[in-house]
Amino acid sequence: MPYCAAFNCTNTTSGGKNRDRNIGFFSFPKSSALRKAWIHAVRRKNFQPSKFATICSEHFLEEDFAKYPPKLREMGFKEKVNWKLKDGAIPSKVTLPSESTATEKIPGPAASSSTSSTSRGAFQKRRRRETILMIEKQERERLATVDDAPPVPVETEMQDVAAPSCSTSYIVKSKYVQTRPQLNTSNTRSTQTEIGDITTILTQSPAEIRENKPNSESDSESESSSSSSESGDCSSDDYEPEDDDDFETEDDEYDEDDCDNYLSCHAEPHRERKFIVYESCIRELLSKCNTCSAPTLVKIAAKNGCAAVFSAECEENHVQTWRTQPMLGKMAHGTLCMAATTLFSGRSPEKIILFCKHLNLLCFSKRTYFRLQHAYLIPSITDVWNRERQMALESCRGTSITIGGDGRCDSPGHSAKYGSYTIIDLEKNVVLDTQLVQCNETTSSNAMELEGLKRCQATLDKEGIQVDALVTDRHASVKKYMREKWQGANHYFDVWHVAKGINKKLMKVSSKKDNQDLREWIKSVVNHMYWVASSSGDNEQEKVDKWCSIMLHVCNIHTGFDGDFKQCVHGLIEEHREWIKKGSKHYKLLSEVVMSSYLLRDIPKLSPRLQTYGLEVFHSNLLAFAPKHTHYFYKAMTVRIYLAALHFNENGNRKQAVRKDGEKCWSVSYPKSKKGEKAVPSKIKVDPTYKYIEKLLTVVFERRQEFATYSEASQDALMNYAKAPPAVNATYQPYDKADLVKKRCTRFPTK
Fold first, then answer.
1. How far apart are CA 166 and CA 7, in angstroms?
2. What's the CA gap between 144 and 150, in Å, rounded?
3. Long-range contact list for 118-123, CB < 8 A, 24+ apart?
4. What is the 3 state secondary structure string of 565-613?
5. Helical spans, DSSP H, in 626-690
6. Would the pTM count as exceeding 0.70?
């Protein structure tokens, strides 16, 4: 039967008397340092607790409990409440052996007379007081040697012995030290104290205790002695615990989840965990008056964004208030935090507000969100992105880099309002710069991509970055600009973009009647383009010769080519192919696409190694922050692109996930266009990280501390951050809304 391990305690974990007395039992902690402190506190010689060993609640002080059922019952709680200790609590109420037993074992004639025994007890009382004072002095001196060490107040309560035959309990209570002085009964009457790691445990936070988790774990555990032998070993008054080194146990494993269950006392508000609390639970929390325990009437005293202040008043007019969130001046902390995380995660504020409305959850208004976005969020995102971009650019100084560039419009077609242009370092797969262009800043929507490239080039020139090559798609304006204005850098075309164009044209040709035989050659033509680019290096003429050889290859002619490339390099073709006859209709249709003069001019510029695949991934990632079906104003659109860049730079080079057995993780996808005839394996990456969110939140709350009001923060945002271009309709003639409503009509009759 499990029992309380404290010396001279007979409480067990079962039995009617203990249930009636409502005694709680606590297993020994798994934290190594805290476990040593508990073993030290039970005052049993050579004691090693098993996994079933416990200590009952009678050996802890009331302030050691996070949940103390006797107190809760006095306050009117009828539900059963389990005992719960505070983090770092140590048993301090342990009854020692009787003084009479100790005096019988002291050598010398004085042990035989009652008078000398009484005198011996008085001497011990004086020695105890001196020892406690000495502990206080030593602990103060030790903590004084540590920088910024807190004071060590020691508050002592001692129950003096009335007679030698009485057992005595000593309680030493302190915020930083809990220990009992040990008396040495040798002739020199010297004293020893065992403080050890107890002070460390009592001053540690939950996070610091978590760090004490040992590196090794053991599955075995043994108990050194039985209950009867342990009681016999501790029957003398001169018993002293062994040194801390002797208290090592094999069961030093520590469950980290146990520590996460404790509420943090030192975390910053935006790092704290948040909980959804129901109205009935708040009413239950404040249902009793803290002063007189009378029933209270709970009401909402005030609302502030996502926060609320509750007031509870009893019949005796005692009023207590409870606030759901800390405050940042006059602003609730959660309001700013929730608005920030809404934007940082790329969500729409309208949908978040609607979500909270359906959940009946207190939330900020739409007006409040946009005020916070303008005053605090947009400047904070801009500052973090500028700092991260500067670090990325500084890493490129002193070397020639190959960059990839591509534009992205906010809507398909030729009526886009915004066009963003992004350049990345193709070697490192890191976004170096991104620029947003509004359509009224250029002559047309088509010209926004070139304008974005010019702005990115200006940024690189300003930072002194040397560009060796630029890889883009086949945008006509960009080709002309690179040929005439940016002659210091080589211009290459991304193979995927070129191959995609050829694939679309051949699919269109083969979709017509009697041209289906061309479809089986489309994949071969596309693969041939990738081979030409990867096998020719920077030899432009070789690329052209290899590309033109495809027209003879489809006719089953593999040698005798014109130019430097004389014959195919593949081996014997064993599979049956429907070869195209030279001069046939299919041959002419294929030649119109493959041998186009426009295409032949671009074949020499195919990129031999680096492609813009990373940019396509970035644009796909950008859809999560700035979807094309939602309109955003200029500054909001800009910072959403910055957020996508921050996320991409942190997670663009994630590694492939690995199973416990070392096998790499793969998934299988079935392309819709293949209709189940082909499957493609895809790498499963490790989960993304969001460290940039922590940086953003830190900057947001620092800005709130710097500018404590909306007006101050808004004024700073207008003065020190880039202004948006004029609205698209700024030059339009305004119309009177009343006249437009009056002229409005419908072509269909209404009831």
1. 16
2. 8
3. 118/164, 120/164, 121/161, 121/164
4. CCECCCCCCCCCCCCCCCCCHHHHHHHHHHCCHHHHHHHHHECCCCCCH
5. 634-651
6. no
pLDDT at residue 1, rounded to an integer: 61
> pLDDT at position 19, please?
55
pLDDT of residue 451: 95
Residue 445 to residues 54, 440, 501, 727, Cα–Cα distance (Å): 75, 8, 21, 15
Max intra-chain CA distance, the chain: 132
Distance of alpha carbon 459 from alpha carbon 392, whole angstroms: 12
- Going by C-alpha positions, the residue among 615, 571, 595 that lies closest to residue 449 is 615
Nearest to 450 by CA among 493, 416, 419, 492: 419
Determine the Cα angle at 306 with ends 304 and 311, to 5°: 55
Shortest CA distance to 217 belongs to which of 255, 166, 263, 165?
255
Rounded to whole angstroms, the Cα distance separating 428 from 648 reads 12
d(CA 133, CA 374): 61
Instruction: Give the pLDDT confidence score for residue 528 in this predicted structure.
Output: 95
Pair 471, 494: CB distance under 8 Å: yes
**Segment (H or E) for 543:** helix 540-548
Q: Each residue of 260-284: b (16+ CB within 10 Å) or e?
A: eebeeeeeeebeeeeeeeeeeebee
Angle separating helix axes 613-625 and 634-651, nearest 10 degrees: 130
Q: At what angle do helices 540-548 and 522-535 cross, to 10 degrees?
A: 160
Tell me how far apart the alpha carbons of residues 723 and 380 are, in angstroms, rounded to a whole number. Answer: 15
Q: What is the mean pLDDT of each run of 10 residues along the chain (751 residues)?
A: 80 62 84 85 84 88 84 71 85 63 37 39 58 62 51 37 34 37 37 36 40 39 34 37 37 44 77 92 92 92 93 92 92 95 96 96 95 96 96 93 94 84 96 95 92 95 94 94 90 95 93 86 94 93 93 90 88 83 91 93 94 94 93 95 97 94 92 82 94 96 94 93 91 91 86 65
The secondary structure of residue 324, as a DSSP letter, is S
pLDDT for 114: 38
Q: What pLDDT is attached to residue 41?
A: 85
Residues with Cβ within 8 Å of 45's Cβ and at least 6 positions away in sequence, in order, are 230, 233, 234, 239, 241, 242
Give the whole-angstrom CA distance, residue 36 versus residue 253: 13
Helix axes 476-484, 448-463, angle to 10 degrees: 40
Residue partners of 358: CB distance under 8 A and separation at least 6: none
Long-range contacts of 479-486, Cβ-Cβ distance < 8 Å, separation of 24 or more: 481/450, 481/453, 481/454, 486/457
Residue 421 DSSP code: E
At 96 the pLDDT is 63
Please give the backbone phi and psi of residue 691, each rounded to the nearest 5 degrees, phi first: -65, -30
Q: For residues 312 and 300, is the Cβ–Cβ distance under 8 A?
A: no
**Integer Cα distance of 528 and 594 in angstroms:** 11
Rounded distance between C-alpha atoms, residue 206 and residue 224, angstroms: 31
Tell me if residue 323 falls in helix, strand or coil: strand
Helix, strand, coil percent content, the chain, rounded in steps of 5 = 45, 15, 40
Instruction: Give the pLDDT confidence score for residue 419 in this predicted structure.
Output: 94
Give the HSE-up count for residue 265: Cα atoms under 13 Å, Cβ half-sphere.
Answer: 9
Q: For residue 170, what pLDDT is reported?
A: 35
Query: 689 and 659 in contact (C-beta within 8 Å)?
Result: no
Both structure tokens of 636: 């909001």
Domains and CATH numbers, the chain: 16-236 (no CATH), 269-368 (no CATH), 369-494+607-741 (3.30.420.10), 495-603 (no CATH)
d(CA 152, CA 250): 33
Sheet with 418-425, side-by-side order of all strands: 430-438, 418-425, 400-409, 466-472, 490-493
